[in-house]
Amino acid sequence: MEEIEQLIEELNNELQINPMIVSEIDSIVELKLKDANTNYILFLKGNNPYVTRNKVDNVDCMIQINTKDFIKLANNELNTTMAYMTGKLKVTGNIGIALKLQELLQKYNTK
Are 34 and 65 in contact (CB under 8 A)? Predict the structure, then answer.
């Protein structure tokens, strides 16, 4: 669990440093780590994107994935499309946003 917390913290820090990368996403994403029963909100809108655990209404996309698969996704060891096609990644809402998740993680180089 410590690895996921570090990854989320690094992502949040990078969002603060370089918020312009998320301008093309302009969405609120709920990341649900199924095995850890933990949710994160990726607020990827405006000039102040951030990650929080606070519940937000009206997310544009909810992504459900296991912790180990999310870490693989962040480390570019798992492709979002393949994860979706094999059932490792489940999406509710705008699937296009979910497919941009790996690109976002790569831009921030959270490894």
Answer: yes
